[in-house]
Amino acid sequence: MTDIRTAQAHTSPARARLLEVADERFSADGIAATGVDRLIADAQVTKATFYKQYGSKDALILEYVRERARRSRDRMTAIRDAAPDPAAALRAIVDAVVADTGRPGFRGDPLLNAAAEFPSSTHPVRLAVVEHRDWFTGFLEDRFRELGHPRPGGAADEFALLCDGAVCGAYAGDAVAATSAFERAADRLVTGGA
Question: What is the pTM (predicted TM-score) of this model?
């Protein structure tokens, strides 16, 4: 993916290529199901290059998760900056989530998928996912506070849960039903309706 390569422009081409391939393979096949040999072959690097650049698959996985989190933060910030007001920003986030579920090859949220593959709450991958989710909830809380919501923290928690449910429901079940329910529930939350 071009954005991975661009984000890693300051690193070696081999390191950037490995991260790009990891992004593709981990997203399509899962982290545990993707072996180092497959990453090496797809990136067209040697085993020595892989270990020189990352040292281990775990280090590559952690960089993949951090890169995915960075891209999500950049996307949310761009949505906020382009919106005329906080309600429009929240609705644009809903639109982005719905659009994501319609992408070819959609497999759910990569960060939630990564967290599911690392059950230990103290594993660095889980900690990176938690750090991003905390950021996202804080980001949403700021939007609800700007909106004048009486409970911005609670609204942010509910909105984040709605996002998770839409993504998981769209991947594992009926995407139209999941995203339609998400849009309705998010709109009620944004407008303060019941």
Answer: 0.90
Domains and CATH numbers, the chain: 1-55 (1.10.10), 61-191 (1.10.357.10)
pLDDT digits (tens, 9 = 90+) for 125-146: 999 999 999 999 999 999 999 9
- The DSSP string of the chain is -HHHHHHTTTS-HHHHHHHHHHHHHHHHH-STTS-HHHHHHHHT--HHHHHHHTSSHHHHHHHHHHHHHHHHHHHHHHHHHH-SSHHHHHHHHHHHHHHHHTSTT--S-HHHHHHHH---TTSHHHHHHHHHHHHHHHHHHHHHHHHT-S-HHHHHHHHHHHHHHHHHHHHHS-HHHHHHHHHHHHHHHHHT--
pLDDT in tens, 34-43: 999 999 999 9
